[in-house]
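Notes, Module 5: Reading structure tokens.

Key idea: the token line is not a picture. It is a compressed description, and you learn to read it the same way you learned to read a sequence, by spotting repeated patterns. We will look at two proteins. The first is printed below with its tokens.
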Amino acid sequence: MSNEKKRMTTASGAPVGDNQNSITAGNRGPTLIQDVHLLEKLAHFNRERVPERVVHAKGAGAHGYFEVTNDLSKYTKADFLSEVGKRTPMFIRFSTVAGELGSADTVRDPRGFAVKFYTEEGNYDLVGNNTPIFFIRDAIKFPDFIHTQKRNPKTHLKDKNAVWDFWSLSPESLHQITYLHGDRGIPATFRHMNGYGSHTFKWVNDKGEAFWVKYHFISEQGVKGLDEDVAGQIAGDNPDYHVEDLYNSIDKGDFPAWKLYVQIMPYEDAKTYRFDPFDVTKVWSQKDYPRIEVGRMVLDRNPENYFAEVEQAAFSPGNFVPGIEASPDKMLQGRLFGYSDAHRYRIGANHQELPINRPVNEVNNNQFDGQMRYSNGSGSVNYEPNSYDTEPKEDPASKISPFEVYGEADSVSYDSDDHYTQAGDLYRLMSADEKDRLIDAFVGHMKPVDKDEIKLRQIEHFYKADPEWGERIAKGLGLSVPEGVK
């Protein structure tokens, strides 16, 4: 091996003669514009940061593998799930949702759980959270929801009035905010939390038979949360606590792992199930659809370069492979566009050519040019169909499996507005101590809200889910449950 030292160069490959002193007119200057190395360094420095993600800005990532442990080929023709023992390389990014790139890890917030499987049929992205549900069920409300979680445009401060005003006017959020204010609302580490696809997806087997499916990643490390006071202290002492924990764990060979399970619903069941199976604010009962083991995910390698691998990692729930398709879930339908479009804005139209996002199989399409493009193919015919019998050509066998649609085109809600049954069930499942902590978290979060109107509206939702719950929140806030609700 050569011991020759690497010579510093400019971006164009020219050697740099002096990296300590700029070229000046004499000892006192001024600096000469001919110092192209200086100009290149300053210009590149000004452009070293890409826009942070609008949501999920702060996060950590790791490489690993997914190994199939159960044959589910009767449900899906997805090749990476085709045989027991098959391993697929993958990359995962964990994140907080509302905070900025420099925010603290140990805040009460959902955690992103985004997995990229580098399959032989293309990249499959499963972009979920550490909760099985979400705050809203229609993507048209997503920008408004996130505006309430971000900073007030006038004060540039976090705004609990906006948070609770929106939630109290959006009762479908009750189920998710109950998870958020419970013991799982502040994970102890990224390793000690479960992950969920949250949405319903469609699996299709090699016979063309379709099934509805939900994903559950269950932590082999167990699920642990942080006490709110401890979390607040850590946020001040070490705001990168979760990022550091994941890196150090893998670095010392303590590789975190998750078992992947799915709930599978026969296609026809969706038409009669007691909850709309495509409403992401609802779960499927595990008594009705027990979890079935699929495989095991292990994280065993840290990134070599955070920016190249974690910051530029681009996930989209629209990245499917044959055998896995979208469902009519309205929130999912909006995300199919929104995520890829965010990456096109943030890191460019050719973001999928970056090494961390590049599929392991060959990419063939007629997308040409754009910023940072470096592979435009070798042919001159970049359209299809054409008279020159050139490739690539469409593959009819890869068309989606059809599903029925109903009704008239209109702006409509889901059929059911029962936002209280599952949230109330979740409350009643909690132990007495868990309920106490939940009440304390809600009361502490709601006290700063300056309008009793907003508090009372939210108390109504708690009361409708469980009268005891509503009464306890009202008492904690020094208010009474509105008479018209009892």
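Here is the second protein, with the sequence above and the tokens below, as before.
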Amino acid sequence: MPQPTPRKPTLYTVTADSLVAIDLNPRTRIRPRTKPRPDAGNRPPGPYRSLFTVSGTRAFTAGNLLARLPMGMFGVSAVVMIAGTRGSYALAGAVTATGLAATALVAPWTARLVDRYGQARVAVPATLLAALGSLALLLCVRADAPAWTLFACCAATATTPNLGGMSRARWAHLLRGDPKALHTANSFEQAVDELCFMLGPVLAAFLCGTFFPEAGTLAGVVLLVTGMLLFVAQRSTEPPADERAGRTTASLLRAPGIPPLLAVCLAMGMVFGAMEVVTIAFADAKGHRSAAGAMLGLQAAGSCAAGLLYGAVKQTGPARERYLWCIAAMTALLTLPLLAASLTGSLWLLAGALLVAGMATAPTMVTGMTLVQERTPEGRVNEGMTLAVTGLLGGIAAGSALGGRLAEHASATAGYGVPVAAAAVALMIALASSGRWNRSPRPAR
């Protein structure tokens, strides 16, 4: 049996660029061997993956997301439930406005108790009380109780803790000393806010329309309580309580830089409230009122995407300077819906303009919350962010009323002047107050 021809040895030479194997057998060709590719598993994780390498962060984020989703459900559910049984949108709007006003009054006190006694000790009973208020509202509507009972029940829901503020307080505690990671965390939380307020109304409308009018409220209560219990169960990530926070008589309204920030939040709230009402009025005037939800959803989607992108980009310069640029960009982009509505009257162009305008919302809110955290005394972070949210709620209520009145008595197109003007006011306040936002040691309690 013939023996196989022995293969000639291979000579390896190293060059500057690659490793080349030269086979001395003349019947074969020279073939390059490229450098081995680095293992993809050795690459450093991205900014958002790095956030969740800390133990407990995924669990508290999941619980907070479940509990925060109903915040976008309760308003729509209450309107559908009350208007469907009582036949009055005016009554439904008045009841939900009462709950909003009560929340603006009660939320800062609830936040102060959370800072003083801890999230688990305060948030659970406060959430249960709010859940009972929602269930009582449901029963009163079903039982055809007097109208005043609806107002009382809705006011009882004001004890709902500021879920976004508590989550941001945990990130601030876990990432203290790392401003880059904290910026990413704040961007993530803002994207979660936009996601909840984008999906919440859609989910509520689906449940109320598919099953029964009270289904949205009932599902919201279950999600709120379940999510809150999961959130507070993660004790390892909870910021420590500071009993001095609740005993101090000094108001955060006196902290340097806080009043103008709250004024900006009030103006920003007017932007959001007016934009929502005017967009609904504009779509209704064009005979496509049902399209308003999708158009507002595009605005929220743009803000959500921009928030995630903003958190992944490395930031340069102090937050106060970025805040000015963000508000200026938002003011400029908000003119696009006004131009689209006035010049063309096209719902498609208006939807695209709202998508672009929404992209400036999240970066502005993220930077504003960063400034609030910087200017809030240590140990009262949750209270400071709750005050900012309260300012937003007050602005939303005022913007809704003003935008709706202008859209009704003038035109829906003219109503878009309200968010543009409110954004311009926010920019002027920020320009006049930027000197007070220089980073300095937090004021003493």
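Summary for the second protein:
- The longest helix spans residues 179-210.
- The chain has two domains: 63-247, 253-445.
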